[in-house]
Queue: 4 jobs
Job 1
Amino acid sequence: MSAITTLGHAGWVLRGNPVTVVAAVGAALLIAAALFAPWIAPYDPIASNVREALQPPSAAHWAGTDQLGRDIASRVLFAARIDLAVAASAVSLSFVVGAVIGSFCGYVGGALDRAVGRIVDVLMAFPLFVLAMAMVAALGNRVENIVIATAFINLPFYIRFARAEVNIRRNLGWVEAARACGDSHISVVLRFLLPNILPAMAVQISLNLGWAILNAAGLSFIGLGVTAPTPEWGIMVAEGARFITSGQWWLVAAPGLTLMLSVLCFNLLGDGLRDILDPRMRT
Amino acid sequence: MGKLLEIEDLHVSFSTRGGIVEAVRGVSLALDAGATLGVVGESGSGKSVTSYAVMRLLDRAGRITAGSIRFCGQDVTRLDHRDLRALGGGAMSMIFQNPRAALNPIRMVGLQIADAIRAHTDLGASAARSRALELLHAVQIRDPERRLDAFPHELSGGMCQRVMIAMAIACEPALLIADEPTTGLDVTTQKTVMDLLARLTTERGMGMILVTHDLGLATQYCRQVAVMEQGRVVEQGPAAMVFRGPCHPYTRRLVAASPTRTSTVADLVGGGAPVPATRRPRPPAGTPMLLEVQGLTKRFGETTAVDEVSFTLEAGESLGLVGESGSGKSTISRLICRLIDQSGGDILFEGESIGGLPAREFHRAPQRRAIQIVFQDPHDSLNPRFSAFDAIAHPLRRLEGMRDGPALRDRVAACAERSGLPLELLGRFPHQLSGGQKARVGIARAIATRPRLLVLDEPTAALDVSVQAVILKLLDDLRREDGLAYLFVSHDLNVVRMMCERTIVLQQGRIVEAGPSREIFTAPKRSYTRELLAAIPHFTPDLMMPTAPFPGIAAEPMMHPQGAVLHRSLGPPP
């Protein structure tokens, strides 16, 4: 029983949960598409070609063309870059800041914990998407501000999560042992407690990525953040929506489906990670 | 009298990751009506699994693969769920290890007892309530009327266990299975709970199976014992016979490893003559004490955990701190290690006051290296993400500024060797090590910076008795050979007697009695100390005799022929 390696354990859990494998493959494909978009996209995502406008899916244009004759498949591939980048940077930002604040609250407790706890409660009382809209509107209509707004509305979840995870570990023997070995309180939190809550946080990160993608696309959809010619799933759906009534469904189909599948992949991956990391599955 | 319970060739296996694990392989036990049987063994011996199998409480992964369990003539292994429900809690019932965890925290205990009654009878709510009150009277809980409406968190551990017992005997079962019923309780509470169980079972003619790791408890409260090892019963018979003349090598090892009133550390591991306490060279006159504690006080809010405690410790000396839960012994060990700040008083280390340094600054003090601690739970005290090597290297990196390289590797290897940890285990992580190996890592880490004072906070409390024996031997050798001073905190008086030259008895944060261990343990001056000593279930195989299991009621006439023979042959208790 003692010789179970982490990889072997993951393999064992995944065998009982093949959906996670599918989700992981999906997420990997998505990331690869974003990375290699310039090489694999058949057309320039921005160059318009009015003669080919509003063509349904065909051999030349797999996902059809939009009102300016741009290849939708190419645009969806390029859009993956910006959407994933915004989501990933927003989630990393909120993870780093939230985990550190939450860990210290959980470790120190007392007045600091109560104060931060109430601020988090206030933040969570706002409708979060509206808060993000207001932030982007106030800070300026730029991609960086979408990242900041998305990170900010995610922050309360990370603070709460890290606080709870640290709180149950703060009185364990190895925390006291670290102090007896010469570590200060700060180094106990940063070098002992944080690494130990990382696996649990990984679940939160994965679930959160899907949500952040949706949030970034949502902001663009209503016209905040990324602006027109840039390929982005939210804008593509917003622009394509006008053509649904006249029967040109393919303008929204490809970006909408990709958006849905990517969120689904990250959510399923998060669920799978939770199973892998669940200590009860270790016996 | 017929057999109440007959277990024949029982096999239980669990399906786990690594395949099928056979936890019980061919256990046969028998219990007469009204008799008591002690099932003893160490962790992993299958003793709890056997009792769970009798109650059919095995979890989904566990399965009875062969054998039979006949209870009052009917085979329990073949019953369906409806019959089992009638049986469980009715004709046989069980008392679990952790009473607080076994009670529903959001339901008043009176209602919980009534639930147990109403599950098996058709009594109305008020009748069940008055029956619950009778039961609380029977288990001699203080103030039973008030306890009826108490929640489990309002009761002490001992009281919770009494409530559990009340529930277990609610339907007058013929068989009571007690699975480590007093583990985690203080020794004086353990004694009252066990006396109560013994009295109730005799009065009501219940049969009892006592599952325990404590040979002392089994000898004191059971006529018959069965010793289990790795899923098998290796030896069974009358307690006195089994433990006085153990036949099986495992029983012999177990008996040797169990501390008795007179054993020495060397006896436990069954090796060699006792090492004479090497006379320490007298420190030159004027040398300050290694440790001097003056009027140490610690308050947590309203409660005073440590109240004006003063004592001294010489270099190379071993001092024991004993007391029950709430006596403040663990708080004192953390105060001296400067992990928490005191509320009053001072601590002098080699004549220098370290009490003035706030605990959060102490990691920078030069004395940090000289005062180290070994924690209670070896598993709990190791960072799950550190390998054994990293755990031992950690204090060297932090306190001596050592960098990775051959010098660090050599130091870690030397510490591991000193602690008896095989070097090939250094790359392993805590979950890949056994309890004893983890204890060795904890000790190696504590001695890595060559401290002069080692605080040992219940270092063997979480270990099996045979592992405890070798760890105690290791600690004893370390102190004698390396001249370390020990502050040995423990609730186990026998262990403290063996390990320490002087002993301090604590009660509710105050020193009750202090002096040389020999005097404290042979001629205690204070009544509290005497009470503590009397409550230890003394394991004395050489002078064992059937004594009255509880005061006031004479020993039952022996039911077993062998027991009766034994009773006569030993004569009256002196």
Note: The radius of gyration of chain B is 26 Å.
Job 2
Amino acid sequence: MITGYRRPTAGTQPEYLFPRYASTVKRAPTQPLVMLPQTETELTGPVFGYGEVKRGDHDLTRQHAGDPIGERIIVSGRVLDENGRPVPNTLVEIWQANSAGRYPHRVDQHDAPTDPNFTGAGRALTDKRGHYRFVTIRPGEYPWRNHYNAWRPAHIHFSLFGQAFVQRLVTQMYFPGDPLLAEDPMYNCVPDERARQRLISTLDWETTLPEIALGYRFDIVLRGPEETPMENRKR
Amino acid sequence: MSLHTTTSQTVGPYLHIGLTWLITENLAPAGVPGERISIGGRVLDGDGKPVNDALVEIWQADSRGNYGGKRFRGFGRSATDEDGAFRFHTIKPGRVPGPGSSMHGQLQAPHILVQVFMRGQLKQLVSRIYFPGEPSNAQDPVLARVPAARRATLIAVKRGKKGVLEWNVILQGRNETVFFDC
């Protein structure tokens, strides 16, 4: 039985208040957080299945009548916990801008074309070894109003559930060699440089399909169960 | 082997594109046993303005205090509207074991776990909803850790008809909701 999940390593998770990302200023709690013991409530979580996730939901290039504009890519990886164990059968939700850097969303007024053949949402369940795979197009960069001449690097949003509600994680995947990363408040929200670099996917020849699509690999780590002395004795 | 949890990032302003397909505001279809309740509220920022781009998720036990049952999954997801409002129609959860071993742990008062995601937050907020007029609140091991003056922010308020409850997410200021680190 899992009795608890480990605390994050210092410097690898953001604080709520991070003034470089201006919207945090009016939305971050000002009172101290209260330590919540991990009880059955926190150590359990919802399970999703193929009743909800349909077979084609992982392919964002096949959701409309035609092909979306842009560079087709394959994004895949493994979901592991901090102990290196795969997280099987867990829901992965993604969303992203189209190749021109535009979201089909009422709030997005960026002067770039929408694409009738691209909505930008997908979902998948990990297999028993924790693997997931999406087919999509490479998202474009786009401006935002955080500071003067602010541009978001190309990114894909990821939402994961894991097996306990304390493992719930929302993150963003970036692309290797993007010069906008250095200026991006989101990417730079934690002091640990290696933690930041783990948000960047790697070009992956193993999943690249010749003449069809480049593959990018993005492994995701969720909080890991404490290894209790009792568990060690059992092994 | 020890890896590090991937760094959390904001859902941003376009979260609806990826996350509204799983909106679940009615958790308890007809036939699920338990006391029917509706819980609604608003998410308000440091200026008291409604947050119209938040996602509120809840996780709760069934009426007998069991998690993840076949007939009642216990997961809800609601996106706030222009008034910052969210809502859930569900059943009142039963009591579940407290911290420590489930065999020896003291029971907790009925509660619902809440996670809130929004633009302007690099990681989700965690809170809990408790029920008004519930005698077991006085012995709840989690409420006991919350400074007494702030406990009321975790307890829903009765509104009008039977079973209708209000619980708000006040991000800053006087009456700021208690958020947890877990």
Note: Chain A touches chain B through 75 residues (CB under 8 Å).
Job 3
Amino acid sequence: MVRGEQSSPAPHAAKPPGRIIPGAELGAMSAHEVDFAIVGSGAGGSVAAAVLAAAGAQVAVVEEGGHYTRNDFNMQEAWAYPALYQEHGNRTTDDLAIMILQGRNVGGGTTVNWTSSFRTPAPTLRLWAERHGVGDIDAATLEPHFAAVEARLDVGPGNPDDVNANNRKLMDGAAKLGWAPELIRRSVKGCARLGYCGMGCPLDAKRTSRTTFLADAIADGAVVYSDCRVKLVETDRGRAKAVVAEVLDRASDRPRGRMIVHARKGVVLAGGAINTPALLLRSHAGNESGVVGKRTFLHPTVPMVAFYDQPIEAFYGPPQSVSVHHFSNRGARVGYFLETAPVHPMLGALALPGFGDAHRRMAERLPFVQATIALLIDGHHEDDGGDVSVNKDGRISLRYPLNAALREAAIDALGNMARLQLAAGAREVVTLHETPIVIRSEADIARIADAPFIANGHTMFSAHQMGGCAMGSDPRRSVVNSRGRHHQLENLWIADGSVFPTALGVNPQISVYAHARLFATAIAQGAAAEPAR
Amino acid sequence: MNPSRRKFLKRGLIGGGLLVLAGTLPFAFRTTALGRRPRRELRLLSLEEHAVLAAAAARLVPGDGAGPAWPTAEAVDCAGKVDALLATCHPDVGNDFRRLLRLFESGFFGTFIAASPRPFTRATPAEQDARLEAWRRSRFTMLRSGYQAIKRLTHAAYYSSPEVFARVGYAGPPEVPQVPA
């Protein structure tokens, strides 16, 4: 039973509440035994924990990152990126071409996301059914899970009062060009529109997994271990038996102990794309298909800046409130959607090319910068995305080639973002090539196609990581079935964005929550009938 | 050859080879100009590596043309902040970065890349800028990557420093009251 619903299965006797146990409270060696061990406390792990704990299971969530609350969120980039993000904010593809923003804390990506809430698009679900063997998940299947998740996260209709100047320019330009901008629905309650979603909400107005589903799970007896990085999944004769973790010293991020969590009934992996495939690879388990880590997708994001005569102050106000999906379907070519990004000093400086005074001349105009981003929808055509691997020391590697199809989409997106900002009244629009192209009229746009679009030749980043442990019906081409159950390891499930066979084409949080809830509901129903082993 | 090194070289003959080459430049730091002592106790970098990073940071952040109100890289301790951050990352990350600094400092290597035979820390500002530009625009992916690694870490440390906020027209975050834990 999940909070707010009719009970099904039968209610269980109330258990004492669990709690969040930081690594500092654990000894050098500790062992624990539960019904379900869940790796990761983000969107997928939290809702899986809530469903299973509500069904009466004894649940432990093991989270690599630290436990932070609203009083810790000081809205300073210098603290937030090292503390709340994977690899201290330095995760990238192998060649450093794409900077990867991925959460690492109790709450995972939901602690640092920009609240944008979209259901999985119907065309994406159709693609998965027609080409990736996911024949039994459609909008109707997901509807009760979307509804429950959106209710718990207070996702309401898009609010025009949320539109800051940065997003207003996206809306105005798109509207003038007939590109149908839409207000974004947001997972917030009591939002004061400060603009620091990406550094943790200091008001808890952003509805994160920590403040919702994880809290529900804890109320039903789940225990969350923070600062514990799962290194291995132990398996034996086709079953997952335990997870083994390093207990980390938070200040140094170095191991200070070990813990093992034995799972009587099963293990749920929910550490997110990149991390979940890496965990299976490190464990030398669950890769009979040979596809673990392959087809990792990033919504590779191409930013562009425009300079206005009036202040935009893209560092204040909700980071995202408008989206444009006019270019999501470009037929045989890679599609993309347009949103905005906040421009705080550090993030802005990282995006701007060059160094010294050339860089400074753009950075000092920060209050007048509008930032539009194009998120390329990878994996829907013949592109195979990236490939996660691990070295002998367990260090994660992500190779992601920028192929011709992605480059074509990036160049097309740059042209259209320029048109949009000129339509909205920008004085000039500037690409983020290492030699920026300054655009003041339509005639300048043609120069974009002449500039090489190469790795580390143009700023790129990723805020959405998907794939690497795809769901599907064919065990030779997928890792889990359409309820997240591993094809070979009968009591191992994956409940995070790594199960998506392609990129989503929208911001992922609601899709991750809803699919994880679908999977966890099936797990709970099956577990009720199966004895522990 | 061990498997991880073989895989590393496979990433690109030039790419992987460069960091291997860095390991064979034992005298890259023999003539490094140490400059000012680090402002904090170093946790990862050697004094020489810190000096190379500090010299690069001085060129990467706004320079003399920006005016006296802009803090220097040394004033906000860019190199020290980068050292502290890298000390918490995976050990391989720190080791790769140290090798990168060795390569960047090398006068031997600089001759081929930017026709600049002096160690970076002993080069003139114009020569230093030329070496940074050569890496930034190189046709070799590894050099472009190496430049981005140094640039991003430096700019992240610099522009996240409150001393710089006013220079970029940012008033900082609003006051938010703390609540009982």
Note: The mean pLDDT of chain A is 95.
Job 4
Amino acid sequence: MADQEKEGAVAERRTPRSENAVARMARDPVSRRKFMALTGGSTALAGFLAACGGGGSSTSSSSTTTSSSAGAIPPPPESMFGKGDLGILNYALTLEYLETAFYSDAVKSGLFNGSNLATIRKFGDEEAQHVAALTAAIKQSGGKPATAPKTNFPLNDANSVLMLAGTVENLGAAAYLGQAGNIQSADVLASALAIHSVEGRHAAALNTLLGQTIVPDGAFAKPADPMTVLNSVQPFIVS
Amino acid sequence: MDRHDLKHPELAAVEIEPLSRSDVLLKGVLAAGAVYGLGMVGPFLRQALAKSGGGDIDILNFALTLEYLESTFYKEAQTRAKASGDLKNLITLISGDEDQHVAALTASIKQLGGRPVSEPMFDFPYSDTAGFLKLAQTFEDTGVSAYNGAAPMISSKEVLASAGSIVQIEARHAAAIRLQNKMEPAPDAFDPSLDMPQVLKAVQPFIK
């Protein structure tokens, strides 16, 4: 009888991350220079989006726009955010800056009171915590955090602001989901997932407030690719 | 320790890449199983590990166990929870989602050449809507933490994408149930993660 040991029963190891992409980024002088040149301000982001032919009001109120093909979602543009995990963290940080700014504006608008105001404050506080954590993670790995874009959000009435909040949160969740497969480091992935599910909670809570379905994509959330995400937020970024 | 003395040497051979402190717990569970026999390990971990084919299949089977739990829970709740209006609609919606998760995970496991765990029998002790809501919140929050805990151990990008697309839905369910409970939909800025032994411990009381 063959040996009882079953070699095949050894659990597959997660592909070893031989070198943390962030460490690589910090070491490589060429990519570091390029990246630093582009993080001087939000002008770069606005310019990039213009070059992408960013569409105007592409934000839809319910379902997320997604990559059409079944293939992998590309990482965020390297020239904008940096390479590898660092690029993904800076992309996430940029989105979190936008969300934080939006909620801050919404609170200051005076359009809300009672439980809706409490919700907006709470969500804004959580996005600010995301900004802090992502910034710390980037710095810790020797990278340079992206700077906050200058923003301008429409604040006409409570309902339209809540709808915009819902759109942004649904989009943010899809953005994180889109990048999960591109993240090299298990630790960065764990952090991204811990944030991703919270954005899902925010989205569903806002969907509920607005009388919309909590699952605009159905039983399986759809990922969004960076160009779609960046084009969707472009209307709110001013240089 | 001589491998040939072990009751279940294949458990000793399971390697866990040390990603976090909590993996030490899983290693401990597996080590106990290797030495003392699978009875120490808990029926569902045992069942999952018994299938050959690697870590991703084990993780998918772990997820499938949780989805079976939720699917049964919500199916029963459609009558047992005595819900009406928005809550009734929510239960119907969530029930449908969990059924789809069961189907998708089952299909994924088969596609990878694994054997899906069989559906356990469950016992959910509650007698009114409030009791249902309390359990629902626990299950949804635990589900999010379970997926978030397991996902960094997944090898295949496709399996990771599936897990990600499901966990976001569980988070949405969690938020909606919490709102029904008049609780914070997103209590923390970062959802905590749980490892497999912690999750199994949490759900074991409901498995008959």
Note: Chain B has eight helices and no strands.
